[in-house]
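hey all, quick one before standup. I had two proteins in the batch that finished overnight and I want to keep them in one place so we stop losing track of which output belongs to which input. First protein below, input sequence then structure tokens straight from the run.
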Amino acid sequence: MWIGWIEFDILLGDVRSLKEKRSVIRPILAELSRRTEASAAEVGDHDLHRRARIGVSVVAADPAHVRDVLDRAERLLAERPEITLLSAHRGLASSDD
């Protein structure tokens, strides 16, 4: 079993409140989950209205599939015009580790 995760640090566009932040983040999380079939959540910077940390994780039998899913998630975020992807940090582990 292979477990992969990626954490994104993103800068939100013209967002002036935490309520506006939620209205931007919710559709992003829904799209990530739907299009990658992975788990996605806001995992940090909850109290900052222009920054967010989003985590995506996936479990699969093949490490190549895990990498493909994480690559797809990164492309999805990079293509969104309302945010700026500042960084992405990945991890990959085997259940045998």
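OK second protein, same deal, sequence then tokens:
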Amino acid sequence: MSIRTRLTLQFVAILFVTLLLFSVVIYFFTYQSGREAFSESLFARARIVAHVYLDGTRRSDEASRASYRQYLRQFYRTLPNEEVRVFDARNQVVFKEGLTGQEAVPVELLRTVRANAREVQLEDKYRQTVGLRYRDAVRGDFVVVASSVDTDSQEKLHNLLTVLTFGLLISFVIVGIGGWFFAGQALKPMQRIIQEVDSITASDLHRRLSQADGQDEVSLLAQRFNSLLNRLETAFAGQRTFVRDASHELRTPLAAIIGQLEVALIQQERTQQEYRRVLQSTLDAARLLKDLTNGLLQIARASDDPSQVPRTLVRLDELLLQAHEEVHRRHPTCRIDLDFAESPTARQAVPYAVLGNEALLLSAFLNILENACKFSAGSTEAVLATLATSRRRVQLTVRDRGMGMTEADRQQVFVPFFRAEAVRTVPGHGIGLPLTAKIMELHEGEIRVESQLGQGTAVTLDLPAM
């Protein structure tokens, strides 16, 4: 079932139930007011009949009494199917007016009227029976019982029921048509969004939805979808750039390996020293290829869903010592000074502790320490690695006094395979800092790079403490 149909049916159902309850209330109160009005008419009729009877019995002869009753009837409207009886103190009928042959009045009704002064009983087919106690100073108390059929209310309620029924049916049809039309108008922007989304493919991710200008829910949905398209376009562009740059970087060592092997095989026999030189060159290229492949795999791993990366309690001071030892093995001539600074306000159960993946964090530490060693080669000053902690954060800052970089190059250091102009002669692939940025993102941390050309570079890793 479409949303348009569902909205129409829900709107019609709500309005139909509302009108039905309203109609029931109207019918009920009309019935109640008609019944009460008819009851008062019966009581008035009972009082008139009692008055006629008592006043007529004071006449001297029967002819005079009959003439008096006929005279009074001219001033009072007789009710439909009316029957009025007057009972004396012995519950004997002393006067009867209207229809005859009706059922006897129950003694219980007479007893109740004498006790309560008045009583109303309802019967089928809109017939009502009322009892009234009438006091006379000379002849004592009488009970007047009047019964009649409320044909006026019956006819009015029947007409009202007909009007309400046809009104509900007509309202149902009108609301259904109107609801279908207005639901279509409300969902028209959604249909336009669907058409625009269907027309967007991987080759034209630059296109955006046109319904994102307002503040309603449809506009908010279009804005969110446009934001999604922005991220997808950035991801696709980054993927294409990554594949292009990775292919270029992989082709270089492969071409060197193939060239060395072809030269060694095609030309004349060589000496043992020449073969060793070819093998050493091929081995260096293979190692370069391995390092590049490992870097690409680490970037892919760091791009995974953060919820899928296992995390444990990691002490960054121990991890920094481990990274320092590994970098010293790779770069024996590089001097790295370590400084462990703990804030007095930091009251951690485990110092320098974070929740993270040890292998990824070790890779991030190795990247920034190794970059500091490579880019400060020839400098007489040591690389300084400072690990500081506070109540909520743990920071590692690695500062070197190497060649540094320009501001334009600094803004591009997190782009994979980017190499600054000042360091193109330094061996590397341009994937260390992008990989470190991915690792920080996975750990809800930050990475900051500050650098000035000719004065060195400072890289800060900021992580949430345990």
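Flagging for whoever picks this up: The chain has ten helices and twelve strands. The radius of gyration is 51 Å.
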